[in-house]
Amino acid sequence: MFFQLLYYGVAKRFPKSTVPILGKISLAFRRWCCRHMFAACGKKLNVEQGACFGSGKDIRVGSFVGIGKNFIMHNRVLTIENYLMMGEDVMFLGGGHRFEKIDVPMGLQGSKEKTPLYIAGDVWIGSRSIILPGCKRIGHGSIVGAGSVVTRDVPDYAVVGGNPARIIKIRKNTEDIVD
Questions:
Q1: Active-site position among 36, 74, 97, 140
Q2: How many CA atoms lie within 13 A of 174 on its CB side?
Q3: Are strands 76-80 and 166-170 parallel, antiparallel or unpaired?
Q4: 3-class secondary structure per residue, 126-141
């Protein structure tokens, strides 16, 4: 609880890590708070200004993970492998409200359980992307284009984009391409 108060009361508001001098201090302070809040945390975590992820107890991150400015995670159990790049204003939305009974107001039907999200290694998630509850896995080496709305799982090495996000292409080694 102490680190949550420290993070949301102070560290969240510190400037971005790219701001001269103060940025490095801000980065180190946010990293220190998150190490105590997250269930697991690897080396070189970068949590930018304004990121919101609840208590952090449902988050496990590997090494070299960058969480973008104004990131929002709601009703998710999050696992991130090593090497994640994330742009600004990304949202991971999970759970949701129940609405099955038409004789009971939706607001009184309760909520669904938290949705797991597994992000494999070496992933890039572009700015203002939204990952919805239908997506439970973002594959290794994949790229989510800026502004995408991801409604289902993303395969390994896929480049996805749009609303709803669709596969644009599959990344390949240039050595594998024959002229």
A1: 97
A2: 0
A3: unpaired
A4: CCCCEECCCCCEECCC
Domains and CATH numbers, the chain: 51-176 (2.160.10.10)
Residues 6 or more apart whose CB falls under 8 angstroms from that of 123 comprise: 83, 84, 85, 138, 139, 140, 141, 142, 143, 144
Q: How confident is the model at residue 179 (pLDDT cuts 50, 70, 90)?
A: low
Report the SS3 class of residue 13: helix
Q: Which of 54-63, 103-112, 156-165 has the lowest mean pLDDT?
A: 103-112
**pLDDT of 177 higher than 60:** no
Share of the chain above pLDDT 90, in %: 80
- What value, to the nearest 5°, has the Cα angle with vertex 68 and ends 18 and 20? 10
pLDDT, position 73: 95
Amino acid identity at 122 = D
The answer to whether the CB of 87 falls within 8 A of the CB of 70 is no
pLDDT of residue 173: 79
Whether 97 is catalytic is yes
- State whether residue 107 is helix, strand or coil: helix
